[in-house]
Amino acid sequence: MNALGIGATSNARNRANDPQYDPHWSCVIATGRVGQLQLHDAADAVLFLVSLQAAMIHGYTLMLGGKRTLRSFTSGSSTVADQVGLA
């Protein structure tokens, strides 16, 4: 069994809680954008995991975070809340 680890994604709930959700999170994601439902970011990952190309992938969580887990902060702020202006 495989799973998706879905990172910051633009959707109605997230934008309702924070109208500036997309720009807040885009600035701390290495790809420079949040996941987009319209671009099928998560759907394409699911299609890959159920395809023959992924036949040898088992017990894995595919992280969809726009390289978020690879980016380090250098501005002196130590938390994501500091980085996106929520602290």
Describe the structure using short key phrases.
single chain, 87 residues, alpha/beta, two-stranded parallel sheet, 4 helices, 29% helix, elongated
Describe how the helices and strands are arranged.
Elements lengths: L2 E4 L2 E2 L1 H6 L3 H6 L8 E2 L4 H9 L11 E4 L15 H4 L4
Parallel strand pairs: 1-4, 2-3
Unreliable parts: 71-77
Secondary structure: helix percent: 25-40%
Kindly name the structural category.
Answer: alpha/beta
Average pLDDT, rounded to a whole number, is: 78
β-strand percent reads: 5-15%
Structure notes:
With 87 residues, this protein is α/β, with parallel strands linked by helices. The chain has one domain (3-71). Helices cover 29% and strands 14% of the residues. It has 4 helices and 4 strands; from the N terminus they run E-E-H-H-E-H-E-H. The protein has helices at residues 12-17, 21-26, 41-49, 80-83; strands spanning 3-6, 9-10, 35-36, 61-64. It has a two-stranded parallel ribbon. The longest helix is centred in the middle third of the chain and has 9 residues, at 41-49. Residues 71-77 have low confidence and may be disordered.
Brief summary of the model shown:
This protein is α/β, with parallel strands linked by helices. It has helices at 12-17, 21-26, 41-49, 80-83; strands at residues 3-6, 9-10, 35-36, 61-64. It has one domain (3-71).
